[in-house]
Write a structure and sequence with these properties.
Layout: H1 29-39, E1 41-47, H2 55-65, E2 68-74, H3 79-85, E3 93-97, H4 101-106, H5 115-124, H6 127-133, E4 134-135, E5 138-139, E6 142-148, E7 150-154, H7 166-172, E8 175-177, H8 184-187, H9 190-193, H10 214-225, E9 232-234, H11 240-245, E10 251-254, H12 259-266, E11 271-274, E12 278-281, E13 284-287, E14 290-299, H13 308-322, H14 324-334, H15 341-344, H16 347-350, H17 353-362, E15 368-370, H18 377-392, H19 401-414
Parallel strand pairs: 1-2, 1-3, 8-9, 14-15
Antiparallel strand pairs: 3-14, 4-5, 6-14, 7-10, 7-11, 12-13
Helix pairs in contact: 2-13, 18-19
Length: 416
């Protein structure tokens, strides 16, 4: 991949009325026209299935800026892989999940967001969303959506009072979880619920994981004990909805992506949505936490090849894609829960039970931890899942819990 020197764009040049673009000379009129057209075209990668929903936003930007936008649908999880492969031929503006931000910054692929936009983000977005758009205290992307797991439950089997406590849920009805084949995205935050950290307090310290302690051991004991909990039903990824539908489980935890399926499984009127319950782990009542995901747009300066006006236009496009009007539209057309505080407070959003619950989960450190952005997360997913699964399946003796967790801490810290 050809490396591009970081472009320092001053506040004055970050307007479309900035420095005049110097055209490239060419022996061919056609080549000259082609180069001119390319210079006035911004390539945009939007999430799969989102192109139509951004049509009006893009059209307004084109009218206001004089630039054309080539919109391409692209899988968000592959954004980092595709950008780093060859940044110079990738998109100028692209969507991505926030956990990829750290690696893109460390590789020099993306730079800080200009101050005028950083101030706007700080003024309009929720605190947790801002954390998702930052790396080492600096803002590198534009947040536009949040995603958190919630509790789905059958209102005919559990009341609003019942769901406040995991112990009450499993005493009066049932809870379904995937512990035999553990998913660290779902189960890993139990360690954060008891006060342990993953890559430190801010999620950016490679040596800051501290699960190898008494609190961490209490989590593994709790997981192992669920085999003896009559109210706990072990599920796998393929039977969650069928078990919810036939009444085998009265509650489970998942994200907005399962909302429609959950409604279909038991009926819209029966489905309840709530924040995570409190639970007793190691004799302490703690608030169960989830990972928070933040949806972002970022700017890749490499395709502009030093054209400061195109770079400025790219940041402006990212701003358009994430402004309040666009977030309202994304909520309406794609059910993306907004990060803009005013949009969150609107009647349209507040009247939606799922959105309101995600906002509550995502608006407080009491309920969520912003998923870390470090490359070491790859090691985290595999090693933690193995420990969690082996604990539930009885492959690790209780006497070895502490040793296993201490080794896990060391492995995570040693990952490059």
């Amino acid at each position: 991949m050809k490396s591009w020197q970081k472009i320092i764009v001053s506040g004055a040049s970050l307007t479309l009325a900035g420095t005049l673009l110097v055209g490239c000379s060419s022996n061919s009129k056609d080549k000259s026209q082609s180069a001119s057209t390319d210079a006035k075209t911004i390539k945009l990668w939007v999430p799969t299935g989102a192109k139509e929903s951004y049509a009006d936003t893009v059209a307004k930007f084109e009218k206001d800026s004089g630039y054309k936008v080539k919109v391409v649908e692209s899988e968000d999880p592959k954004a980092q892989e595709k950008i780093k492969k060859d940044a110079s031929t990738a998109a100028d503006v692209f969507s991505l999940p926030h956990d990829q931000l750290g690696q893109l910054v460390e590789s020099g692929t993306i730079q800080e967001v200009p101050e005028q936009y950083t101030k706007e983000i700080a003024k309009t977005a929720t605190d947790q969303a801002i954390v998702g758009a930052q790396y080492k205290g600096k803002t590198y992307a534009f947040p536009f959506g949040i995603e958190s797991q919630v509790l789905f439950y059958n209102k005919e089997k559990l009341s609003e009072q019942d769901i406040a406590s995991y112990e009450t849920i499993t005493r009066k009805a049932t809870f379904g979880g995937t512990f035999k084949q553990a998913n660290s995205y779902i189960t890993g935050p139990l360690f954060l619920s008891v006060g342990d950290t993953l890559f430190g307090e801010n999620g950016e310290d490679p040596k800051g994981t501290n699960w190898g302690n008494d609190k961490g051991v209490s989590v593994l004991k709790w997981i192992a004990d669920q085999k003896n909990n009559k109210g706990f039903v072990n599920l796998d990824a393929n039977n969650i909805m069928s078990k919810f539908g036939d009444g085998a489980v009265a509650s489970f935890e998942s994200g907005p992506w399962d909302y429609a399926a959950a409604q279909k499984a038991i009926g819209k009127d029966k489905l309840g949505v709530a924040v995570y319950p409190k639970m007793n782990i190691g004799g302490q009542i703690v608030q169960q936490k989830a990972f928070l995901g933040v949806k972002l747009y970022a700017v890749n300066q490499a395709p502009a090849k030093g054209d400061t006006k195109r770079i400025a236009a790219s940041y402006k496009l990212a701003s358009y894609l994430t402004n309040a009007e666009s977030q309202k539209n994304q909520f309406k057309t794609r059910n993306i829960v907004p990060v803009n505080k005013d949009v969150q407070a609107s009647s349209e959003v507040q009247s939606n039970d799922l959105a309101k619950t995600v906002i509550t989960m995502g608006g407080s450190k009491d309920y969520t931890v912003v998923m870390p952005k470090l490359s070491q997360m790859a090691t985290f997913w595999t090693e933690s899942a193995a420990i969690l699964s082996d604990t539930y399946n009885g492959k690790i003796s209780e006497a070895d819990y502490l040793t296993k967790l201490q080794q896990f801490d060391k492995d995570i810290a040693a990952t490059k």
